[in-house]
Amino acid sequence: MVKYWMVGMGGFVGAVARFALGSYIGNRVGSRFPYGTLVINVSGSFLIGFILTMLAQRIDASPNWRYLIPIGFVGAYTTFSTFEYETLRTVQDGQILIAMANVGLSVIAGFAAVWIGVVVGRAL
Q1: Residue 18 has what pLDDT?
Q2: Model confidence, pTM
Q3: In this structure, is the dihedral angle defined by the CA atoms of residues 113, 106, 37 and 6, taken in order, positive or negative?
Q4: Which helix (H) or strand (E) holds 58?
Q5: How many other β-carbons are positioned within 10 Å of the β-carbon of residue 40?
Q6: Cα–Cα distance, 71 to 65 (Å, whole number)
Q7: Domain spans of the chain?
Q8: Which of 81, 78, 76, 63 is nearest to 8 (CA)?
Q9: Which positions of the chain have pLDDT values less than 50?
Q10: What is the helix (H) or strand (E) element at residue 18, kind and residue range?
Q11: Which residues of 12-21 are buried (b: 16+ CB within 10 A; e: fewer)?
């Protein structure tokens, strides 16, 4: 039960951080290009790589930290970071074609899903 609380607490803070940072950047530089989302996705990718590496290789910490920070906080801050980390792991495992397929399918399918969601949402 503790792991669910850790994910929930981290998720709350990550979601608020995403909203706050995205709003701040959007208000500062405008919304012609999604700079806020770009900053969040790239920084989240850095954070998940850094934090998972630190927790796995550098710090002898309770498993609860993994639920709180990378799963809860970074997961709510950006799911893009998880996608990037998983793709990196696939590349590191020597599965380059699978990694490329993951990138291509995620981008194309994700874009298609957003478009279909907009179409369906507008139709209702």
Answers
A1: 94
A2: 0.77
A3: positive
A4: none
A5: 22
A6: 9
A7: 2-78
A8: 76
A9: none
A10: helix 2-29
A11: ebbeebbeeb
